[in-house]
Design goal:
globular; mainly alpha; Tyrosyl-Transfer RNA Synthetase; binds L-tryptophanamide; 328 residues; two-stranded parallel ribbon; 3-stranded parallel sheet; single chain; Rossmann fold; binds adenosine-5'-triphosphate
Length: 328
Amino acid sequence: MNQRLFSAVAPSGIIHLGNYLGAIKQWVELQNDYDCVFSIADYHAMTIFQPPQEFREKILEMAAIYLAAGIDPKKSIIFIQSNISAHAELTWILNTLVKVSELERMTQFKDKAKRFSQNINMGLFDYPVLMAADILLYKTKVVPVGEDQKQHLELCRTLAQRFNKVYGQTFIIPKTIIRKEGARIMGLDDPAKKMSKSAVNPYNYITLTDSSDLIKEKIKKAVTDSGKEIIFNLKEKPALSNLLTIYSLLSNKPIKEIVKNYQGKGYSQFKTDLAEVIINFLKPFQERFENFNKDQNYLKKVLNEGAQKAREIAEKTLEEVKEKIGLI
Ligand code: ATP
Ligand code: LTN
């Protein structure tokens, strides 16, 4: 048996290049080295209001995205978080161990509370505890995520250690895997903010299902820095450096080589070519996505089978936890 790996994405919208490059790309690569469990974190998505009909579609679309990206249900478990009640139950238990002050420090909460100030709900606050429950239920050894989730993972480790200290050795303390490149793809409209599904401005991101025309338009509109030269410099040219990172990761060419190719050429040529790189990369993905997304029966079958396997693991851990606590 390999070590267990767990990760998830909230189905709050179609995923973008940041989610793909920061998280899902590595999931696919790690599938052969770990026992992988990939969840569709629908309870997390609910922390921002989701209209029910659209929500239903987004959840199944996320399953189609996982499959189209190369997650293989023969190798890995794919399941919907809300299909397994153990996630909500362990969250409650961990809630009794987490300090309010620890959750108040979470930068994602502070950021989302500002952006969605009309709906600062308890779920948004408790989000990292549900994440900890997700991870700990599967006795997870490693969690591959993008840079923005680092703080949540730290809290998960703290809660696991705290539980073990109070009730005796139960949880494995998970390790975070963060890739250097692509761990933080920035917004096309503002290189100071990360590319985010819940961004209000759709010109912040490129989703994996954007059409060729839309991609061209979004890249054309992407902010660039002053000057004309194509160089990689995160401090002086953060917007261009972000675009170079995307170019490099999708074309598998080192940034140095790309910079060399664009010596003496301006932003406009670079942007036209970048749009082509993105379109060519996404085309085969989009074909696979369409095919999976059409076959809702197949998606539901994969998700049901995944839930059965996941439930077995999760319920066993929850039993052990309840027993340790003294619950009858
Ligand atoms: P939301 O805006 O709804 O919070 P999001 O775009 O921030 O969504 P998540 O669902 O929170 O995306 O994240 C899914 C995975 O993608 C996580 O592992 C996260 O670290 C990673 N990720 C998110 N945004 C980026 C980004 N801009 N660059 C790299 N990785 C990212
Ligand atoms: N909140 C996460 C999605 C997520 C997750 C997890 C990631 C939910 N549960 C457990 C890793 C481990 C996000 O990436 N935004």
